Amino acid sequence: MIKPKSEALQFLHEKIVGDDPELQAQLEEELANLEVSSQIYALRQEAGLTQTELANLVGTRQSVISRLEDADYDGHSLSMLNRIAGALGRRVKITFPKIEGEEAA
Hints:
The structure is a single chain. The protein has helices at residues 7-17, 21-46, 51-58, 62-68, 78-87. The chain is mainly alpha-helical. The protein has a single domain (7-87), classed as lambda repressor-like DNA-binding domains (434 Repressor (Amino-terminal Domain), Orthogonal Bundle), CATH 1.10.260.40. The two termini are 16 Å apart.
């Protein structure tokens, strides 16, 4: 289960998501998409690149980069993330943190 970092988020989490496992799973998926898109955007900005410039480095179109930077996009592929990371002098690191309050299967 996700632990909100502020009192406002804690309140919303309790009132909207509560203990519903389906809503918790949806929230976690959306937060993961937000994290990936935010990181792509931040790294591109840090490198001083436009979406078009990054697209050219990666070998794709600007519209693909735009879509990847959209928090609502849920089609991030590992191969594309690796291409972006390489173009920005980075590497992809994936972690599987333990979910609080759940036992391993």
